[in-house]
User: Which sequence fits this backbone?
């Protein structure tokens, strides 16, 4: 588990270092904004592809978890190195190299997450899985929070490598850091990861299943509940939808509604404290997520076991209310209401992800978990792949009521938010309805699996 904690922290730290400089790096190669959207989407698509591919490979070669981890990590290392040296290929081909590199970085991330979650689902007792996954989530959030701080000093870097005709600056230096992080993960996994525990658990599960083959049919292990699987996949997609909203809609909304954010031309504007408000908003949101993850990891998670659907329902209810609160009723959205809704959503997000994966692991039961976990990350990648484009459209489609002029930040139509956040509120409400509909069948399925376990 310490290897997984290290990989999660370093991986998320490397991801958050690259993201803030991705658009300046592409703009340096004269790319269009559409290429930036493609780069963001391709990383999420890569996560889905990596999850599906690794899930199938892990199911076929169950004793190769360490080899699979190292193989996909080497792919991530190559992607990070290619990303940082893309300018060697010229502007046109350099942009293509960046797109390919972001895709394979996503493949690496999706594969690692699939193996790690399968490992936890196979080895960790069901009553402790929410605790372990909350601790893993705490490592991820810590890496995401610290990444931009660690990457900030790189903006002052300007190192020319004459032999390669390459300049390492604040735009491509994060790619070097990403490569170094991948190299560290490779070493830690190669040196300390022992896959014997999961092998013994998987063999024990199969032996237990074989031991009851000759028993009456009522003692056979049930296949995973289809409605339970569908519910967990839908909730996983909803969780990633909230992440996509934070990554895409929050910066855009705060810039155009409140005038927060960086200057359009930093060389021709004076510093104002409002320029830092978006950073402060998202940093405090990260702190809320981090604090709740710690509370879940060390206090609440043990009480969530057996009540996962209650925790999921609480989180979905909060997301429904916060998105409803962000609708600009009457044509205006007060700043304090928007900030409170954002921080509340960040605080209760931890009640959604960990319990949902733990519930999925229980629904799968004694069957091989790798394909199901891979499919979970593939389905979860869809909202982050198509979400940014859709959210921009939902923000710009409603007819604006008036124009605004925020000096040096944004000048133009004041967007309406009712379609953007109203749509999300309806989606989260539909997840609540699905949860209520699936609650009975899922509980009966889990009870039958417990009886099967007692027979074994």
Assistant:
């Amino acid at each position: 588990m310490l290897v997984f904690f290290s990989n999660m922290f370093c991986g998320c730290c490397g991801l958050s270092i690259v993201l803030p400089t991705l658009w300046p790096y592409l703009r340096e190669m004269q790319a269009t904004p559409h290429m930036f959207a493609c780069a963001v989407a391709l990383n999420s698509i890569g996560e889905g592809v990596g999850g599906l591919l690794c899930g199938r490979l892990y199911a076929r070669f169950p004793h190769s978890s360490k080899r699979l981890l190292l193989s996909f990590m080497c792919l991530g290392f190559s992607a990070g190195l290619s990303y940082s040296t893309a300018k060697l290929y010229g502007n046109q081909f350099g942009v293509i190299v960046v797109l390919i590199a972001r895709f394979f970085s996503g493949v690496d991330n999706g594969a690692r997450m699939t193996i790690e979650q399968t490992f936890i689902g196979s080895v960790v007792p069901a009553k402790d899985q929410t605790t372990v996954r909350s601790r893993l989530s705490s490592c991820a959030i810590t890496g995401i929070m610290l990444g931009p701080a660690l990457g900030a000093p790189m903006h002052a870097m300007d190192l020319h490598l004459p032999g390669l005709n390459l300049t390492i600056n604040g735009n491509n230096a994060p790619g070097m850091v990403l490569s170094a992080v991948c190299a560290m993960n490779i070493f830690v996994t190669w040196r300390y990861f022992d896959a014997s525990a999961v092998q013994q658990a998987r063999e024990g599960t199969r032996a237990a299943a074989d031991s009851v083959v000759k028993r009456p049919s009522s003692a056979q292990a049930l296949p995973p509940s289809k409605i339970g699987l569908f519910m967990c996949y839908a909730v996983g997609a909803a969780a990633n939808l909230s992440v996509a909203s934070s990554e895409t809609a929050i910066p855009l909304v705060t810039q155009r509604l409140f005038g927060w954010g960086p200057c359009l031309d930093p060389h021709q504007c004076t510093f104002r404290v409002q320029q830092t408000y978006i950073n402060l908003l998202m940093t405090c949101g990260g702190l809320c997520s981090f604090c709740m993850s710690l509370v879940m990891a060390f206090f609440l998670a043990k009480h969530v076991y057996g009540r996962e659907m209650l925790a999921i329902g609480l989180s979905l209810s909060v997301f429904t209310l916060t998105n409803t609160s962000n609708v600009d009723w009457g044509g205006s959205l007060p700043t304090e209401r928007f900030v409170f809704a954002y921080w509340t959503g960040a605080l209760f997000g931890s009640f959604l992800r960990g319990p949902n994966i733990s519930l999925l692991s229980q629904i799968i039961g004694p069957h091989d978990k790798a394909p199901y976990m891979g499919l979970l990350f593939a389905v979860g990648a869809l909202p982050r792949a198509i979400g940014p484009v859709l959210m921009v459209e939902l923000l710009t489609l409603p007819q604006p009521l008036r124009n605004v002029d925020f000096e040096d930040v944004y000048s133009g139509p004041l967007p309406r938010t009712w379609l953007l956040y109203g749509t999300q509120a309806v989606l989260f409400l539909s997840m609540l309805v699905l949860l209520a509909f699936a609650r009975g069948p899922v509980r009966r399925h889990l009870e039958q699996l417990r009886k099967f376990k007692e027979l074994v």
Residues 211-219 have pLDDT under 50 and may be disordered.
